[in-house]
Sequence to fold (275 residues):
Amino acid sequence: MEFLPISLDAYRLGFIGAGKMAESLARGIVQSGLLPPSRISTALYPTPGPPIDFESFGVRVLPKNENVVEESDVVIFSVKPQIVKNVVLKLRPLLGKKLLVSIAAGIKLKDLQDWAGHSRFIRVMPNTPAAVGEAASVMSLGEGAIKEDGQLIAKLFGSVGKIWEAEEKLFDAITGLSGSGPAYIFLAIEALADGGVAAGLPRELALGLASQTVLGAATMITKTGKHPGQLKDDVTSPGGTTIAGIHELEKGRLRGIFMNAVVAAAKRSQELSEK
Fold:
């Protein structure tokens, strides 16, 4: 089956699944100005927690998933890994030559292509900072995805952060690091703020300082290109306050704990892909 490039100026984007990740991506894409909200659609279905108001930022909400597929050139499956097979199989008669994207953790391209009935599929692992334009995403192209498809998806996800391309065999590790990673950093920021409160700071000030400090540190790495170890050494004076704090972190095996968290999440992603 031959696939023709999709028009970058007129394509329509549909989300199958209207959860938090779909909201993060849709909101980020709209805010970036890459696509007008009138060219983005989804269909609501019952999800845990309060419903997401996609219409509040202009995205069209259609009655059924079938309507979303029919009106879209690019379809992003953002449903839970446990149900993606049933969802794709149900929509299979409508998928035709559309460019299909899956952001479901642990679901392999081979299975996605078999269920869809064609191989124009791209697998992407984004993360929730897409909602504020700072996602870390990785993509892997299916057998039938053409070069222009990869460029389209790179531009789409690049509008809400940074995107890399990697072999699919690395996706479990990617899931453990960047897919789950924001939660680790949220926990770290909360812990830093608690430390500030324990040292006598007001809660609001402590949380603001912790959040900005993490943002600033990450920005220094991305903008200077320096290794984090070098940046750490640059602010660690002999016998000073920073080395005293680092000593405590090392005693608590902080680096080992973070490494274990990534490996545990990667292992869970692998388990999901084998079910």
